[in-house]
Design a protein that fits this description.
Helix 4 crosses helix 5. This protein starts with a strand and ends with a helix. The strands form three sheets. It has a six-stranded mixed beta sheet, with helices on both faces. It is of the alpha/beta class. It folds into two domains: 217 residues, Rossmann fold (3-Layer(aba) Sandwich); 82 residues, YebC, transcriptional regulation domain (Alpha-Beta Plaits, 2-Layer Sandwich), CATH 3.30.70.980. The protein contains eleven helices and 14 strands. The structure holds adenosine-5'-diphosphate.
């Protein structure tokens, strides 16, 4: 396992920020760590990157216990903290060279040109950090996390504060890095996680409330109603359609076209097929609107 967390608990003073959190992540997975503010995402990431100690439980990276083999772990991971602390007065290359020195990297020059290339910083790398746009500053943050060519990347809110174009650029950068690295990235933006991750761990008030593939979360969490857009060949008796057992409500677009609202797991396709059959018509168009992770997330976190 690239990342293994068992019964991780962190208590700050009298506040339980993490409560018996367990999960594991295999090689070359991009996993989204999702949760509202204060859920415990940063705390988990700080523990995983060896920056703070857990109260109880354990965290290991590439088989090494983070609290016991902290230095070894730090050599094998890259970490982008939430606030991405950079030295604004330093030139990009100067900063990266400083980070390479901290890591005691032998061929620093080679490492710097590798990360400049992989994060698309070529054109900006001769500037001072505080002359860069927010998106490029974030690239510098990711570049410093990559300087030791880590197998595991921990990115805390990597796109926060970026404009939509910058977000898109950083997302595609992360996707390309995820081809051969394990990435755990936190976010409170659902679309972001949907765009990058195949698996999601949802944290709320220090506890894991879901850990699954996106598809399974959408399928299993029956927290949403389904909206189905359907068009029949012939005009339909609206009353009969709305009286079908399992259909919650209908909105007519025209005499043949409707948006059907049904509860969670109801097999709308089957109901509509039988209805069309008994009404001597056929369905010419049918489309189920996708459940959004956003609404699932809201329901899950409110619920918990
Ligand atoms: P997230 O990253 O999901 O927003 P955090 O891990 O930052 O959540 O915080 C989890 C909880 O722990 C919050 O209630 C936060 O106020 C608390 N917390 C985080 N850091 C500290 C700290 N250094 N001292 C006291 N409480 C903290």
């Amino acid at each position: 396992m690239s990342i293994e967390v068992q019964n991780l608990t962190k208590i700050y003073g009298d506040q339980r920020a993490l409560d018996q959190v367990s999960f594991s992540i295999g090689a070359a997975e991009i996993v989204g760590f999702l949760g509202p503010n204060g859920a415990g995402k940063s705390t988990t990431m700080k523990i995983l990157s060896g920056h703070i100690a857990e109260t109880s439980g354990s965290a290991s990276i590439l088989g090494m216990d983070v609290s016991k083999e902290t230095l070894e772990v730090k050599k094998r991971i890259g970490y982008l903290p939430e606030l991405n602390p950079l030295y604004g007065d330093m030139y990009v290359k100067e900063y990266l060279s400083f980070i390479a020195d901290i890591h005691k990297i032998k061929d620093g020059k080679k490492a710097i040109s590798r990360v400049i290339q992989s994060t698309g910083l070529e054109r900006e790398c001769r500037k001072k950090i505080n002359q860069l746009s927010k998106g490029y500053k974030q690239r510098v943050g990711i570049a410093q996390a990559l300087i030791n060519d880590p197998d595991v990347l921990i990115l805390d809110e990597p796109t926060s504060g970026l404009d939509p174009n910058q977000m898109k650029e950083i997302r595609s950068l992360i996707l390309s890095l995820g081809k051969n690295k394990t990435i755990l990235l936190s976010s409170h933006i659902m679309q972001e996680v949907e765009a990058m991750c195949s698996r999601v761990i949802i944290l709320n008030k220090g506890k894991i409330i879901a850990d699954d593939t996106l598809e399974a979360i959408k399928k299993n969490w029956d927290v949403n109603t389904t909206h189905t857009h359907v068009k029949f060949r012939d005009p339909i008796n609206e009353f009969e359609l709305s009286s079908i057992d399992g259909i919650q409500s209908i909105n007519s677009v025209d005499e043949q076209t409707f948006v059907i609202t049904s509860k969670g797991h109801v097999d709308v396709a089957d109901l509509l097929f039988n209805f069309a059959l008994s009404s001597n018509t056929i369905i010419v168009e049918q489309k189920e609107q996708e459940k959004s992770l956003e609404s699932i997330f809201q329901k899950l976190t409110n619920h918990a």
